[in-house]
Structure prediction request, 345 residues.
Amino acid sequence: MASDPDAPLQRLVDGPLKPVWLVAGPEFLRVQELADRLRARARAEGYTEREVFEAADERFDWDEVVRALSAMSLFAQRRLIEVRLPTGKAGRNGSTAIVELLKRGLPPDILLLFVGGDWSKKHAGKWSQAIAAAGCVVEVWPLKPDELDGWLRRRLQSAGLTADAAALAVLRERVEGNLLAAAQEIDKLAMLRPGARLDAPAMAEAVAESARYNVFGLVDAAVAGDPARVLRVLAGLRAEGEAVPALMGWIFTELQRLAVLSRVQAARGDLAGAFRAANIWPGRQAQYRQLLQRHPPAVWEDLLIAAGRVERMAKGRADGDPWQGLERVLVAVADPRAARLGVGA
Prediction:
């Protein structure tokens, strides 16, 4: 049986609480769960105030982070300052700011956390080396194909479920390597069949019991280039009382890997290797190759940034209707004509 690839990463996060951390990788779920583990540790050790910044592109003002680090806390002696890097890159200004900040040293009451939505050896630089020297860098690499079944089995067990090999194969086929989709499907299984021992027919039946309108269908509609279905599924989700933040995890993951794949394709890089790293199985690669033809890399980056604005709207940190913003983003994914009209949400 393949070893648990998350175990050494969890040991790093559970070790000494360093003053600065970088957790980064292309798999949104594993990165976020490790970051959540760090946030929980920080809260337990008295870092009860948290401030979050979204450094989505070169337009981000890094002076905001500098001011936050030097500001006096009104509510707590210890603060967690979190900087999200959707592309996994700090940029020229960010790299300079991070190196200078760490050279001067952080205030003793600050824990600084960087969360990257992508990672490769090309992302690393002086800024990540400075973080590694002052704290800890946790690189979250994609699961290998032979690690997925073990990951699914452990996830099922943690939810109080067991599945035989045939049931596991049904689930694997349903989620097609998307770990966030797998986690959401397992959460549904735990609610629908608590404590169940699942064979293939039971797994197939339980999966079929998922809601009529769900985030899987939403992203599938956008990937398939069907803007009308995008609008129908969005309307159904809204009518069922779904919340926009609950949808954004998988949407971010999809846009992040499309941005990465588009850059690889534009640079005439190893697209087949990039598909493997993104856990896009051979059966879906032809569809993704067609999808990548819809937009150049810059548009995929713009869509990712626009999704970040939608999330801020949903959390009350930006003005606007998050449902309308999400509609614009996903219709633009589905239809190049909509993207040419602008994806600003």
Summary: Strands lie at 20-24, 49-54, 79-85, 110-116, 136-139, 162-163, 197-198. The mean pLDDT is 85.
